[in-house]
Amino acid sequence: MCVRRSLVGLTFCTCYLASYLTNKYVLSVLKFTYPTLFQGWQTLIGGLLLHVSWKLGWVEINSSSRSHVLVWLPASVLFVGIIYAGSRALSRLAIPVFLTLHNVAEVIICGYQKCFQKEKTSPAKICSALLLLAAAGCLPFNDSQFNPDGYFWAIIHLLCVGDLFSVLDFPFLYFYRFHGSCCASGFLGFFLMFSTVKLKNLLAPGQCAAWIFFAKIITAGLSILLFDAILTSATTGCLLLGALGEALLVFSERKSS
pTM for this structure? Predict the structure, then answer.
């Protein structure tokens, strides 16, 4: 069982790393600026893979009544917002910056649980939320590559995450690089979601949070080497503050589980 859990965790980390790096490559290096088409391509690939997985018996899809489908419509709209706004933000922001801003969604979820569900929140989790907010709040003032559009779409993205619990003419050589990368992005996006579900079903919340944190760290670190990212000492301080906040969140999750 321990080997299986480790294998699922490593698979998740690999999919997480590959998915973010591939998306960043398509959106930034290849300068693909049509997130709606990008989203449609990912949804098509994901839908086909989901159908194949269902036929092979890897996943179970229960038929739902129309009323059940209507209940999921708001979540579907938020999911579209997550992909669209996330694509816009990721094309303009460095991956470490994007992930630090993305972590604010945890604060929204924590606030909702405390205010509306009246869940008891540990001091460690409260401190974690404050550190994540501080890190994200300081970034716009210390980011040497500050892009207002990127931050705007990142805010829309994290709000959607928190609330949810165009054909082009390409040069000949560019055509294969683009479609290969987009296809890889669709496959990796599906397997990332699939491995995330397996991770959450198999591991305790604290262990799951630890694997997610580890995936973010290696993704952010490797992205600095692969993409053009200018990190000043102030920006690095904000990113480290965010990492400290998320590490504290992992500690609080492991302690409560």
Answer: 0.75
